[in-house]
Automatic annotation (TrEMBL):
Domain Tn3 transposase DDE: 2-78
InterPro entries documented for this protein: Tn3_Tnp_DDE_dom
Name of the protein this chain belongs to: Tn3 transposase DDE domain-containing protein
Domain of life: Bacteria
Originating species: Roseobacter fucihabitans
Upper lineage: Bacteria, Pseudomonadati, Pseudomonadota, Alphaproteobacteria, Rhodobacterales
Length: 95
């Protein structure tokens, strides 16, 4: 996933100055955390559906991973369903 997110300049930092490296690395970490967060919400929605939950074996549960990125296009085109929203308000209120 790191190569997928940090694809600019051949995955290399172009400067040896620490200050110039800080912003790309922090941005990279923010994108990683955001992807994991959204993917975790999506996994929770699937597991909340009893039909899917009963279909999943113990091996399926052990293989769950919040790092998949095949549904994300790094070049800026995202397929969005604008008629639905992620349940972020419910999660933020509960926290």
């Amino acid at each position: 996933m790191n190569d997928f997110i940090f694809y600019g300049n051949g995955n290399e930092l172009v400067s040896n100055r620490r200050d110039d490296q800080e912003i790309p690395v922090l941005s990279w970490h923010l994108l990683q955390a955001s992807m994991v967060y959204v993917n975790t919400l999506m996994i929770q929605d699937v597991l909340a559906d009893q039909v899917w939950r009963t279909k999943m074996t113990a091996r399926d549960m052990a293989a769950l991973n919040p790092l998949p990125y095949s549904h994300i296009n790094p070049y800026g085109v995202f397929d969005l369903d604008m008629t639905t929203r992620l349940p972020l308000n419910d999660i933020l209120v509960a926290a």
